[in-house]
Structures are given as structure tokens and as C-alpha cells.
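Changelog-linked ticket: zinc ion example.
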Amino acid sequence: MTDVSRRAFLATTAVSLGAGLAGPGVPSAVAADNDFTDLVDAHVHVWTPDTAAWPIAAEFTKADMQPASFTAEELLATCRPHGVSRVVLIQMSFYGFDNSYMLDCIHRHPAAFAGVGIVDHDKPGVAAEMRALNERGVRGFRLYANRKNAQAWADSAGMQAMWECGADENLAMCLLADPDALPAIAAQVARSPKTPVVIDHFARLGMKGGLESPEAKADMERLLKLADYAEVNVKLSAFYALGAKKPPYDDLAPMMRRLRDAYGAKRLMWATDCPYQLDQGPAGEAHSYEASLALVRDRLDFLSREERLDILRNTARRVFFDGLA
Ligand SMILES: [Zn+2]
């Protein structure tokens, strides 16, 4: 048995024990091992090769879809053996503003999925559309935050309506941010301090040029400063794309420790960014689902057991699954 399949077997066994057999006669060590189940992966994209039923946006072709298929069912088969029972689906760019494949996945697996949708803030009635999507399991909205468009938020009535609706309905603004957008993001958070915010992938610090450059260090200070706002949360995710980009990703540990110190584990959530973090990635990388999970579950020696569970389960449940579970 390979290490991965052994772990998968153990995780599956732990799930079934937790589901039905715990009780008198079950050693307490087993109960403790069961703690790392019912985890939440806070960021995954799904799509289907059936583009006749689920058309992709005009600016994409099927060749852009790599891997060719990553359906809800393929996702569940990937994550469940690792003790991950819930996933936040992030609307995929291929589908533009058409959230319907993601909504269909949530409809078919309501206990497993919550959604982060993409809406057109320039269209009239954007808040009404957010509320309608919320009825169908969408709990957040994705915003692309590079420096230029984040600076334009201040003057956009539609964007301000989105942030206001987020505060009113407890819907998160989920920011795929470039580091140079952090000053504009800070200004928006100051305007809308009651709106829940989730910053993806550490604001992609270290995606270009590593983590040690003066620019990366200044960006890190800006990201840490956003912790002053209680509604801001950060995803610890996309390890395959950051820093050394190499398992076991220990080079990310100092950054994660500083985020824990600033935000506390209750405002940090783990995610893989599948299907870009898979045993066989699109380019056959050495990355794996297990390696992403193991960094938070088994390594990072500055984390307590409780903090690991906050990052792997509780924070994402609070932000994305309250009221749906
Ligand atoms: Zn992603």
C-alpha cells in the first residue's frame, strides 16, 4: 500500500468509526484520531466536459479546461478519503457570470457544498441577484482584485451595493487579490467594516519572486494590518503556486505563523484550490491533495490541535456553512 492510499484507508476507517461505532468499547485513542474528519476544503473549482449542457463563456475554449473534467463527483471521490466532507465551490472563470453548473452541484449535494458565485456588478439589481443566489446555497461572491480594478471600486455604485448587501445578508466578499491591490482593499474594508471578507491564497504573496524580496515583505505587512478589521479572514491555500512551490511547503510556515499571530486561527481557513492541487496535476506535478492537508494537519509545529481544527474545519464552517448544515 502506498503512503497515500494507506492514509486514505485510515481516514476512511476513521470516518466510518466516527459515524457508527464510537461508544463503549472503542478506545479513546480512536476517538482522538477521529478529530481530523468532517473537514472543510474552502476553495475548489468544478467543471464538466459536457459543454453542450453547460456552455462555457465565449472567451474560453475546451482546450482551456485543464484537466478536461473535474466534476462534483470527481471532487468528492478525491477529498472524502482524506476526511474532507464539505467543500466551498468557487465559480470557475470558464463559465463567466453563469453560475448554473456550480448551483447544480450544490443542488445535488446540499450537505457537501456551499458556493462562491460571480455576478456582474455593473448590471442593475446586483444585490437582488446576490440574494437570489444565496437562496440556492451561495454564501460569497468572488471579486478579482488587481490594483487597477480594486482602485475603481470606490467609484462604482454596483460594487458598493455588493459590499452593502454582503454586510446585510452575511455574504462574504471573496477576493482573488494581487498583492499590489492590498492598499485599495484596505480602503474598501475601511468603508465597509461589517462586510465579511475572505482573502484567497494569502493575497498571492510570493506567487512571483518568492517571499523574501522587499516588496513581498511590505505586502506581508499590509496583509497583517488588515487583521485590525474583525470581518477579514484569510485562506491558507494554493500551496502549489506560492513560494518554493514544492511539497512539503515548509517555506510557507513563517508566513503562516505570522498570519496566525495576527488573525488567530479562527479567521484562517485551509483550502487546496483543486483541481490545481491533485496527485496528478495538469502537468503531472509532484503536488498532492494529501501534501496540502498534511502541511496544516501534521507539520506547522506552532499550531495547537485546536488551531489545526479551526483552520481545517471551523472557520470555513462559520463563514460558509452556517444555516446550511
Ligand atoms: Zn482557485
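Closing comment: Example verified and attached. Residues 1-32 have pLDDT under 50 and may be disordered. Residues 1-37 form one domain.
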